[in-house]
Design brief:
- The structure is a single chain.
- By secondary structure, the chain is α+β, with helices and mostly antiparallel strands.
- It has one domain.
- The strands form two sheets. A five-stranded mixed sheet has the order 1-2-4-5-3. It has a two-stranded antiparallel sheet with strand order 6-7.
- 34% of the residues lie in helices and 11% in strands.
- The protein contains seven helices and seven strands; from the N terminus they run E-E-H-E-E-E-H-H-H-H-H-H-E-E.
- The relative contact order is 0.12.
- The chain is globular.
């Protein structure tokens, strides 16, 4: 039997990434994706996506791990489970010492969504609170979009799934992960995080009606200054792959002022895992960046262009 899905697409994208609400104590990150105006009702019948039980299981795991971490920073994690909300998005906001993460059911119900991809989206929203520098538009508390993506795969997803597991990993990713990590467990976690990025790339492509990002087509853009806006889908994918391949431990946190601690950087001798230049501009005091300088060479002759920039 064919299944149907109820989607509503509005015209236009969001014009900014950050907005103040009427409550000056609140700053809202507008969403994981630009506002495509897409909705999926909880009553929609469709193939794919997460069930309500799977949705809560993902958020249970994240909340159990990160509520104590947020508490140690003097905050309270408010993981808002908005299953009935049809919006295909997610967002973060800070209200006093409350770290709010809004997880809309419409996002979980998107046909191409997987549990690991949904976990990474939640990690991204948590990254606005915990991801460190660079911060978005000088708003103080919130890490910008690119940094939140970097945090999601490098720190959060790895902390959640440090035991590996997950489904199959492509041979290209498996080989790349083996070159970044020595233990099988770390390689499996790397592969799992990378495959979550692949799934998100598919979701982004379907939402924006564009081609999905790929390993061999890194975003060639080089910014003159750090961009706080949503990176283009390929640039975002490059960032997520870089985070999956960075061998810095997830226990080494990011700094709220300096973007270097906790990250893979060229200055520190890392040849993979650095933030891509399509959104990130290294501090001027650091060693200059080289675009497309580093690659991982695979036995079959393919190149996984380092994730996918040198920084």
């Amino acid at each position: 039997m064919k299944r149907r899905i109820s989607l509503v697409m509005a015209v236009g994208l969001s014009v900014g990434v950050w907005q103040y609400s009427q409550n000056t104590q609140t700053v809202l990150c507008e969403g994981y994706f630009p506002d495509y105006g897409m909705k999926i009702s909880p009553n929609a019948v469709q193939a794919g996506g997460l069930s309500e039980e799977e949705y809560h299981a993902v958020l249970d795991r994240i909340e159990s791990v990160y509520a104590p971490i947020v508490a140690a920073k003097g905050g309270r994690l408010d993981m808002r489970r908005l299953w009935s909300n049809a919006s295909v998005n997610a967002s973060a906001q800070r209200i006093g010492n409350t770290f709010v993460v809004n997880m809309f059911g419409g996002m979980a119900r998107f046909p191409s969504m997987t549990a690991d991809a949904f976990s990474m989206i939640a990690c991204h929203e948590l990254g606005h609170h915990l991801g460190g520098a660079p911060k978005g538009n000088g708003r103080g508390w919130a890490s910008n979009e690119g940094q939140s993506d970097y945090f999601a795969n490098l720190k959060c997803h790895r902390r959640l799934f440090g035991g590996g597991g997950g489904g199959k990993t492509s041979p290209v990713l498996a080989e790349a992960c083996s070159q970044s990590f020595g233990s099988r467990r770390a390689q499996a976690t790397c592969g799992r995080s990378a495959m979550a990025a692949v799934a998100i790339g598919k979701v982004a492509a379907e939402m924006s009606r564009s081609n999905p990002p790929g390993f061999g087509t890194p975003d060639p853009k080089v910014v003159s200054r750090i961009s706080d806006r949503h990176p283009a889908p390929q640039c975002r994918f490059d960032t997520q792959m870089a985070a999956a391949l960075c061998s810095k431990p997830f226990t080494e946190g990011f700094d709220d002022r300096d973007p270097v601690p906790g990250a893979c950087t060229r200055d520190a001798g890392f040849r993979v895992g650095v933030r891509p230049l399509c959104w990130y501009k290294p501090p001027p005091s650091r060693r200059p960046s080289l675009n497309l300088a580093d690659t991982i060479t695979l036995p079959d002759g393919n190149l996984l262009i380092e994730a996918l920039r040198a920084s």
